[in-house]
Amino acid sequence: MHDMIIRQAAAGDADEVLRLQKEAYSSEAELYQDWSLVVLHETTDKFLEALETHLVLVAMIGGHIVGSVRGRLDGDVCRIGRLFAAPGHQGQGIGTRLISAIENRFSTAQRFSLFTGYRSHGNIKLYQRLGYEITGRDRMTDKIEMVIMEKPVHKADAGR
Hints:
The protein has helices at 14-32, 44-53, 94-105, 121-129, 155-158; strands at 4-8, 55-61, 64-74, 77-85, 111-117, 133-139, 145-152. It is an alpha+beta fold. It has a 7-stranded mixed sheet, with helices on both faces. The longest helix has 19 residues, at 14-32.
């Protein structure tokens, strides 16, 4: 992945990000038999609003978007969401690089927080490998229970 570039998303990225996001999250909808997930129905207007309220990053390989992640600071907690690697590019370290990039951009956060579906074992393993721990559960839809995962910022790291 040495040729991967991670940059801040722009309004012109909306169509490609939304198309790839829908493709990537379709496997989650399939897993849970629930196609009501908000992430599958995000509009261009909502994406453009997110550019105003969140830091949206995209991963690029060969000039093409292959993944994305969003983060925003909520007090001293960085809330991370909508992480995906495009189908055909999964399992290549894109998600790991995007999480690392978003964490680095929110260096003032005291804790990072994200969520995924309770049956999304690959996602849970990835986040655990990156230092996240399950801290709670909540209901996302009638069919999907989510696990909330958090990672504290180590005080040794914060005291640079």
